[in-house]
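Input record, target 12 of the design panel.
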């Protein structure tokens, strides 16, 4: 099937689980943080932490918690859940230090961004934390292809709140919204955020998840090759 697309001028990309392999980075940071704190590591701990972490980021999307509160709270909840002694702030500091160095891009991500940058203005918008993303993204070689890297903690708003787009893009040369598209892996964050802001959306569904929500992306792709086919 041939998909006809608009002539876009700007592409907004998400970072984690779109360009970066966050699962790999998270595992690396979690295991090393536990070792730093002399906590006995058990293979069952990471899935427990991930479930807690996903839930608390959903709370952030809903405005129920701030990013400052989020950082230690997820580790406090984890330690309570598994019955380990420890301090949430100390655990958070160790985890974020390791995560900031975990620059694991998906295969093909650098090549994709390089190709897109030849034709489009590129912006990256992430709900990540400044302490982590300024090293993982801004100081990584991939940053050279982006006109701007927008981090939610610095802006004060997180996707899907449309204000992250309004505030993050306000100092850039304006592009009509009908010539802007956002590409990301999260329906509730990236795709709903794009819908709330009034731009087209492309769900990067590399895990081939079922969409059981009422959120309807403009396009759906599951590989970088598919993405290049319809964008380029």
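The sequence produced for target 12 reads:
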């Amino acid at each position: 099937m041939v998909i006809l697309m608009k002539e876009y001028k700007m592409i907004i990309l998400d970072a984690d689980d779109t360009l970066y392999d966050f699962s790999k980075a998270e595992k690396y940071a979690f295991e090393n943080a536990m070792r730093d704190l002399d906590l006995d590591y058990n293979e069952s701990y990471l899935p427990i932490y991930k479930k807690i972490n996903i839930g608390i980021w959903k709370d952030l999307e809903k405005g129920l918690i701030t990013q400052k509160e989020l950082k230690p709270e997820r580790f406090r909840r984890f330690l309570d859940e598994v019955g380990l002694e420890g301090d949430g702030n100390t655990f958070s500091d160790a985890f974020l230090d390791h995560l900031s160095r975990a620059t694991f891009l998906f295969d093909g991500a650098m090549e994709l961004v390089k190709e897109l940058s030849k034709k489009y203005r590129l912006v990256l918008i992430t709900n990540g934390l400044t302490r982590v993303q300024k090293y993982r993204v801004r100081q990584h070689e991939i940053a050279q292809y982006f006109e701007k890297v927008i981090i939610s903690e610095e802006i004060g708003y997180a996707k899907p709140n449309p204000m992250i787009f309004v505030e993050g893009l306000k100092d850039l040369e304006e592009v009509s919204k009908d010539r802007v598209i956002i590409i990301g892996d999260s329906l509730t964050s990236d795709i709903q955020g794009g819908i709330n802001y009034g731009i087209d959306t492309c769900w990067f569904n590399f895990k081939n998840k079922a969409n059981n929500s009422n959120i309807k992306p403009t396009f759906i792709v599951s590989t970088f090759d598919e993405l290049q086919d319809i964008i380029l």
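Residues 23-100 form a domain with the DNA polymerase; domain 1 fold (CATH 1.10.150.240).
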